[in-house]
Amino acid sequence: MKAPPECHQCNFCIRLQQGRLGFRILARSFCKRVQKSIKGRGRVVDFQAEKHLVREYYAALDAADSGDIAGVLGQYISTDYLWRGFHPFNEMTDSIRVASEFWAPLKTSLKRLQRRQDVFMAGKNETDGFDGSWVVSMGHLMGLFDEPWLGIAPTGKMAFLRYCEFNKVAGGKIVETAMYFDIPHLMMQAGLNPFPPQTAAHLVQPGPMTHDGLLFDAQPKAEGDATLAAINAMIGDLGTWQLGLPLEEELARTWHDDMIWWGPAGIGATYTIERYAKQHSGPFRAAFSERSKTNHICRMAEGHYGGFFGWPNFTARHDGGFMGMPASDKLGEMRVIDIYRREGDKLAENWIFIDLLHFWKGLGVDILARMQEVPRT
């Protein structure tokens, strides 16, 4: 009997095939089950069309002059469109507004803008039953800071705007975008310190330690499934901060000991579970109570990378000191993007984008207005 294609012909199967007819039928059935299992483990889910569309869009957008941006967006973006961005931009439903209010002013201020991607991936959205397809890009937008932006005075030097963007693709168009960016990080590069000293490190943040975050090619489905499982396990442990374990023990369940948490300006980046607990997670939990359940608009993974965003992700009562600010006893909204890198069965790196301008404005502190009174350092 000739072995089926891709069959590994284990000794058990060979012996069955050499036996009576009933055993030969069993052998064929066994072989098919093994082959199906092998193929399932290596199965690749293809988001290449969605990735190609977004990469084409980025190439056109990055090359466009300020006056041509609306035309580029009109080519790639659906007429029924929703764009979400950090304060002061918030929600827009018209690509022309996105072009005129966000992209054109940004490209005028950060001249010769370059997109320096560290992570690029795509996947199905778990929160809608794996129906919608999303493409994610994370990195920095770098340019020469030659003109004011949002009242931030230019430096005439290189500047990096941390960003992460989720784009939902349907019918060959981008129909929804979450574009989150670290405005305080840009302020600090311009010599402005809108917050008191932060608990963790301030720096221009690198991409993954493994330098493998640009997933332009299709990835095995099993790897994305494992990453999503690791993210969900972490979310499950996080809950509403009521797991009951000591903080470092809780974190060790889903994080590697040498994890890196690349936090937003005003909080900073921190390394190892022990320092993350001391420099962010512990102080953060001490500053808030009544944390709501987590709500995500999109949660997805591909390969060793995954992430999510919400609008907001959760609310919590600010009844302790946070970021050097006194307690307000008000409920605050956290609009967040998290991007993760998995290594083995645990999380190794995490890049976080929090709309701190929106959060503090909701608590009565207008950071952009305050910035006008803060001298450069």
UniProtKB/TrEMBL annotation:
InterPro entries: Cyclase_SnoaL-like (IPR009959), NTF2-like_dom_sf (IPR032710). One of its GO terms (biological process) is polyketide metabolic process. It comes from the Bacteria. This is Ester cyclase. It comes from Cognatishimia activa.
